[in-house]
Amino acid sequence: MRYAVLGTGSAGLTLAAKLDDLGHSVVVGTRKPSATLARTEPDVIGNPPFAEWQAARRQVGLAAFAEAAAFGEVVVNATAGPVSMAVLEAAGTENLVGKILLDLSVPIDRSRGPVLDPGNTDSLGEQIQRAFPDLRVVKALNTMNCRVMVDPARVPGPHSVFVCGDDTDAKNKVTELLWTFGWPAGSVIDLGGITSARYTEMLAPIWLRLLSEIGHPDFNFHIQIA
Questions:
Q1: Distance CA 48, CA 45 (A)
Q2: Residues 180-220 pLDDT 10s
Q3: Which of 95, 96, 164, 214 could form a disulfide with 196 if both were Cys (CB 3.0 to 4.6 A apart)?
Q4: In a 3-state reduction of DSSP, which class is residue 222?
Q5: Helix (H/G/I), strand (E/B), else coil: 141
Q6: pLDDT in tens, 100-109
Q7: Which residues pair with 12 in a beta bridge?
Q8: Which residues contact 107 (CB under 8 A, 6 or more apart)?
Q9: Of all helices (H) and strands (E), which one includes residue 25?
């Protein structure tokens, strides 16, 4: 499969690396490729600059958002929630029609607490689906650290990953991808339509609180079903 991964942060590069390891063709999307390649300093959490990362993965391409989206059969939104809509607009409606969007984003406004915006009666996942009605949005993997996303064995014992979206076929394809990441079939919980994105996005503030208490990101939520 051809994947476009929008975003060069930790989540984007972790997902891109895993997809590359699995044999998929991957292009990473960024606003301005020349600026991304010119960075020489680690990011705010210590990740190496993109050029250094790409040196070990030369088969992974880098392109502007629109070019990357045109390339991908499946698009991964790994951008920060507050900029996701602008990034998808830059990717171009014509490059997204009919495609699956695996949406990892969470609309956290860290300047206010953190605070979800939107929240309660709406979600970023729903906003994306409304703005791009021909895009098949599947919200998943937004309730955990990116390393756990692609390597669930980092967390001992059973734990859960949620999927939601209005297109059943798209959810099934995302679920199959999660299996290739190492998620057992019983760990994937389908929460129904894209309106359920508001509930998985609501887990972000408690996840951040748990991170501050636990001290590392290798944890996850587990739903035990009787």
A1: 9
A2: 999 999 999 999 999 999 999 999 999 999 999 999 999 99
A3: 164
A4: coil
A5: coil
A6: 999 999 999 8
A7: none
A8: 81, 82, 84, 116, 117, 118, 119, 123, 124, 201
A9: strand 25-30
> Pairing mode, if any, of strands 74-77 and 2-6?
parallel
* Whole-number Å distance between alpha carbons of 180 and 22: 8
Question: Residue 99 phi/psi, 5° resolution?
Answer: -90, 160
Query: Of 105, 97, 76, 109, nearest to 201 (Cα)?
Result: 105
CB 98 within 8 A of CB 124: no
Structure tokens that stand for 191 in this block: 């929460």
Q: What is the rounded distance in angstroms from the CA atom of residue 20 to the CA atom of residue 9?
A: 16
Helix (H) or strand (E) holding 170: helix 168-181
Instruction: For the beta carbon of residue 34, count every other beta carbon within 10 angstroms.
Output: 9
Residue identified by tokens 């939107």 is 118
* Contact partners, residue 58, CB within 8 Å, separation at least 6: none
pLDDT digits over 137-157, tens only?
999 999 999 999 999 999 999
Between β-strands 136-140 and 161-164, what pairing exists: parallel, antiparallel or unpaired? antiparallel
